[in-house]
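Re-run requested by the PI after the first attempt was lost when the workstation crashed. Everything re-entered from the original request form. Ligand of interest: calcium ion.
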Amino acid sequence: VFHLREPSAPWGGGWLWRPGCFPGVPEWRWGSLPPPSHHSPPPGALWICCRVERTNILKRKFLTLLFVKTKWRLCCVSVSYVERCQQHRWRCAAVTFTCPDGGLCQSWVGAIAEQLAAITSRPRRLLIYINPYGGKRQGGRVYEQKVAPLFAQAAISTHVIVTEHANHARDHLRTDAELKKYDGVVCVGGDGMFSEIVHGLIWRTQMDSSLDPNSPDETLTSCSLRIGIIPAGSTDCICFATVGTNDPVTSALHIIVGDSQPMDVCSIHHNNTFLRYSVSLLGYGFYGDVLTDSERKRWMGPVRYDFSGLKMFLTHHYYEGTVSYLPARGVVGTPRDAARCRSGCVVCQHNGPKPSERAEKYETDDCGETIRGKFLAINAASMSCACPRSPKGLSPAAHLADGTTDLILVRKCSRFDFLRHLLRHTNKEDQFDLNFVEVHRVVRFRFMPRHCQSDSDLELDLLENGKRQIFGQICRDHPACGCAPAYSSWNCDGEILTHTAIDVRVHCRLIKLFARGIEEPQVFEDLTNPCAI
Ligand SMILES: CCCCCCCCCCCCC/C=C/[C@@H](O)[C@H](CO)NC(=O)CCCCCCCCCCCCCCC
Ligand SMILES: Nc1ncnc2c1ncn2[C@@H]1O[C@H](COP(=O)(O)OP(=O)(O)OP(=O)(O)O)[C@@H](O)[C@H]1O
Ligand SMILES: [Ca+2]
């Protein structure tokens, strides 16, 4: 027998009887109120009490309500709620109450709807951008078939824009969009489309605050509008790393229930000129080359990354340059931790709230670290970058909102060793536990490729390495000698940067998503506490 009641409901309560339990009860049905309990549910949650017949034990469960509606001319009420399925997927489930009294039925519907409307964190008006060309080009269909019907049921009004060209969404957000009319912005597409939304919103917010995005030292204003991602791209790592799955229905439900997940954003400058923001991967060398090569193969869809990945793995280029960084101090957590950033993360809670104090400290503290060398890859992961290709991500212990980025340096090594490193992204082994890989949790870093270094710096390199005798060889490799130097580009969240010498700074919690971080099974809000009746 299942009983359902609203513990703190002003309209009283009821028991829900499961169909088939008793002869003549074909539908879910409610009866009189059971004894009150001392527990109270979170907002928007419904309490289901389940009595196990043999043990006479009550099991209780909080459910996150989605919507309520009458069915069959007032004789039934359908209550929809979030049901958690395997692998972090959410689905919309419903129970139907029957009641012969139409007036009582209406009062239940009214009371539940009122309670839902009182949850102010839920969005009512959304601005939606659909990239029809992302991933497998299914963005429009996915939105119309899977997402729009849910938004309609939740009484969310939408303004939908199907983009007509790259940067359409970014430019619309920067100047034209009437942002006051909305409670959030949703992008239907991949990481590149999300990046457009981020750029548009951050830019607009800084302009509204009269801040200069070209200054790398500016303390930026956080964006107030939350961003939702309906995954329809090729990697979708931001959705995967904040929700735990790339599933449009799950993401739509996180938007409907009004989740909020702050996220760090890196600003990237070149000579005091703003270039881009990065939220996931900023990668030079291997990932830069994979992206450059894969852009020419866009027609292949998501599989282009595997082709280009294999090609660049076989090409096996290495790059020389200097990385200087400011290590994150006064924070808890390291990139080698076993713990992961999950919903309600205590590391983010500890490190996140005081980013400005830390930034001030670093501005007056110039004793950063410097590493010169030959690298296969230089990656900065501001979050784990988990995605279906690598479910634990590039930096499995990175945090979404701790104000730091993990700087991963993969030094020149053999193809075999690099393959070992890459393979470890896909299994349980530690990809950092190799003598040619190092990882640092940082708040700021700079990179200067060797071909951009001044001649005096280059000479200093040679002196340091005690290799003056090979100066002639180095000189032939220098651009001034007319030879093409081997250099890469930066992959910035799937976009290629126009400069290679860059200055990167983390801005703690600059944006917010309609997400809650990946849930551990034990932190599900559904409680199943047995208690005797
Ligand atoms: C042997 C298997 C090794 C598999 C190693 C997989 C590591 C994958 C790590 C993926 C990290 C993605 C980070 C997210 C970046 C996004 O902001 C960006 C925009 O969406 N996506 C990419 O740049 C897209 C980047 C996609 C990179 C794909 C790299 C594929 C490497 C394949 C190497 C094959 C070697 C085979 C030798 C026999
Ligand atoms: N209408 C459009 N026509 C062409 N390009 C567009 C359009 N709208 C957006 N874009 C661009 O398409 C690029 C790729 O889009 P998106 O990120 O959605 O898919 P993806 O690259 O396949 O996936 P991922 O970024 O997850 O790897 C983005 O950089 C975006 O600027
Ligand atoms: Ca971070």
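Saved to the shared folder this time. The chain has 13 helices and 22 strands.
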